Amino acid sequence: MDKFLKMVEKPIRYTGEEVNMCKKDPSKVKCRYAFCFPDVYEIGMSHLGLRILYDLYNRREDTYCERVFAPWVDMEQIMRDNDIKLFALESKDELMKFDMLGFTLQYEMSYTNILNMLDLAGIPLLSKDRTEGMPFVMAGGPCAYNPEPIADFFDFFVMGEGEEVNMEITDAYIKWKDEKKTRIEFLEEVAQIEGVYVPAFYDVSYNEDGTIKEYKKNNANAKDIITKRIIKDLDTLTYPEKWIVPYLNVVHDRVMLEMFRGCIRGCRFCQAGYIYRPVREKSKERLKELAKNLIKNTGYEEISLTSLSTSDYREFHSLADDLIKEFKPKNVNLSLPSLRIDSISLKLLDEVNQVRKSGLTFAPEAGTQRLRDVINKGLTEEDILSACDKAFRSGWNTIKLYFMIGLPTETYDDLQGIVDLANKIVDTYYAVPKTERTKGLSVTVSASTFVPKPFTPFQWFGQDDIETIKQKQDFLKNNLTNRAIKFNWHEPEISVLEAIVAKGDRRMCKAIQRAFELGCKFDSWGEFFDYEKWMQAFKETNVEPKYYSERKIGLDERLPWDHINILVNKDFFKREYNNALNEKVTPNCRQNCAGCGVGKCGIGVCVE
Amino acid sequence: MIYRMKFEKHDEVKYIGHLDTMRTFTRCIKRTSLPIKFSKGFNPRVQLSFALPLGVGVTSDSEYVDLELEDEVDVIELKKELNSTLPDGFKIVNVIKSENSKSLMSLVKEAIYEIGIEFENDDDIEELVQKIENIFAQEVIEVEKQGKNKKIELVNIKPNILDIEVEVIGFSSIRVTLHCNAGSENNLNPNLVVDKIKNELAGTEIIDFNIHRRELILKD
Description:
The structure holds two protein chains of two kinds. Chain A contains 20 helices and 19 strands. Chain A has helices spanning 2-5, 41-44, 48-59, 73-81, 111-121, 162-178, 183-190, 272-275, 284-298, 316-327, 343-352, 369-374, 381-393, 412-431, 466-479, 493-502, 508-517, 531-540, 545-549, 570-581; strands spanning 31-37, 63-69, 100-104, 136-140, 156-158, 196-197, 202-206, 212-217, 226-227, 255-258, 260-261, 280-281, 302-306, 333-335, 360-365, 398-405, 442-449, 485-489, 564-565. In chain A, helix 13 (381-393) packs parallel to helix 14 (412-431). The termini of chain A are far apart. Chain A has three domains: 2-227, Cobalamin-binding domain (Rossmann fold), CATH 3.40.50.280; 254-352 and 566-608, 2-Layer Sandwich (Transcription Regulator spoIIAA); 357-490, 2-Layer Sandwich (Transcription Regulator spoIIAA), CATH 3.30.750. Chain B has helices at residues 18-31, 75-85, 104-107, 125-137, 190-200, and strands at residues 2-9, 48-50, 59-68, 90-97, 108-119, 142-146, 152-156, 161-168, 173-181, 206-218. The longest helix of chain B is centred in the N-terminal third of the chain and has 14 residues, at 18-31. Chain B folds into two domains: 2-101, Alpha-Beta Plaits (2-Layer Sandwich); 108-218, Alpha-Beta Plaits (2-Layer Sandwich), CATH 3.30.70. In chain B, strands 1, 2, 3, 4, 5, 8, 9 and 10 form an eight-stranded mixed β-sheet that branches. In chain B, strands 6-7 form a two-stranded antiparallel sheet. By secondary structure, chain B is of the alpha+beta class. Classes of the chains: A alpha/beta, B alpha+beta. Chain A binds chain B through residues 2-3, 5-6, 11-12, 15-19, 245, 247-249, 296-301, 330-331, 354-356, and chain B through 11-13, 15-17, 19-20, 23-24, 26-31, 38, 42-44, 56-57, 85, 87-89, 207-210.
């Protein structure tokens, strides 16, 4: 191995042995679990879920959890040329020696990497081809809520938060192993665990028009509806205090402190806003204790408060103050992403960011109040302009704005709204007296392409076709002409593919497999994304991509993910769909319960 | 208070580049209870200064780093504390309180590297040794080097080679011991020597090679 590592870029991606890596004797455990992240080390090691589950598994004496990442293309070539099988970082053992492989599904564009990793491990891509003695291949994470486009590749899926259910699966596995039963018997066992979905236990039939007719169980142990798992009390949960400190500069190279799960906001395009419901917070005392231990165990110079909308934490300002008091003398910085900018948070940013005033970021997502009401983004132009005014007066000069184009009901008036808003920010800057502002205004407008996602009120909408998206991008390019404004956009093809795959059903599996066979991998990396190859894959497998991305789905249609229950009712999504069309805003969870259905759990924000 | 520490770098951590090594040391020191002295200014840092960067993949018995602390500490304790928190592969072997005000970097003058090369085993090893000796016996030894603005230029490495010895150490492997200039004024990157050997022996399959810094020579 040593001689090969000298030939690759960043060999330290493959060596492990970082501070706080877990070392165990694999021969002394009953279950060897490989946590597989289908992207490179630097991305995977920035993922909180990996760290949580790694820690949780390794707290068990009977289990050893190791990490596996997608090798970069140079390493893959060497592995294929020299018949080196994909291995885990801790023991360097190949994956076939493991009992279970768990893939995390963070984004659809990583699916071909999963197949590439299985292939590099010498493990059959299809669940049905795996035989006794081979590892079980499971998956979880946000994209697992629509497991259908990758259903053929996995033995089972886990819906929801993994802390409890993964342990139940491990217990079941060890029991099954001791009893020396067959592979199918294990799947029958886990199919009975709440939150576990075994796709092979369901047969799908289709109507003549191509829509789904029904899901029929073919195994008595399978459930009709698979309900996601949630953790009731986050404070009693363990947290990875033995935080692995990578040698490489990974994407999020800092301590990540999870303040809460879920989001109260309910933006209608945002899947995360629904699948992680309800909002549950950790106590301030617990967070402070964790922060202290994590800094002590890692020596990190930065703590990031991570959650979907940081400042919605009820005691946010007092927590931030306490952390600053504790860590400033130790030269540990506080990083505050996903902050809603108002005057109080500006003061806070001022405090944590005394030296370099990095940019302020706003995500209005849409250019007019009408469209912001459609998407339920409760951010007004006045909010933004008054925050910008205050920011300019206290020394900021860099503003970043995030928008989406192609949102449902969007017209060119809404696009003009993006241009107007950006110009108004420029005007706001120049309205501040010269002596009070910092020179060199920079306003960056980024426009991504709307992707309709399952389990959102917008799941029924179709996406704009590529031509329309390009025309809209051109409109912005031509109209954002102020010298201080920079416009960023992406080629729409990748967003189109994302929509196709995200809303896919089981017929999509063949297309994804074909795309992999044609050489698609690292699809989220611009330099490898090959739209033409994907289109070829769809053609060869008789999958009509526009059927998935552009078609407006009927509200009464059976959706590919209807047998998954995220605790938010389909009726609520229908109501929200109509509210969107009526440009009607739904208050956030703390203002008024909108009756999404998750309240029946009786926890978190629902009972505050 | 400046403490001069000599350390080794072996095993997997040899793949950590120079910047990552600096970060690893910084975080390691921050995990201890040592009286850290931070630099002044907007971006306070642990005061560490390294002698001479070590290439990725190169092991070493002889690395130096200066650490500045707020108060005086026991050198044995300092060594113990750091070794208990440094990742495996790094080992502090010696710590002295430094009275020298000059930067470590400016004291580096020479280095001794051991370059192990493993050949395909059907080659005549004695003949290969002879060939390599011949390369370095020349008056001018030109190698291609990526200069500034990424242009490839030819440089003569002969003046920076103080001594070179080639010996057989196994059935199909040799060791080149290279004594050369090092530091900020005149420096020879041992990879250039490896490249030269590879180029001159084109046609002979090199299975593996490894570079080890045996000694870094500091002079006042």
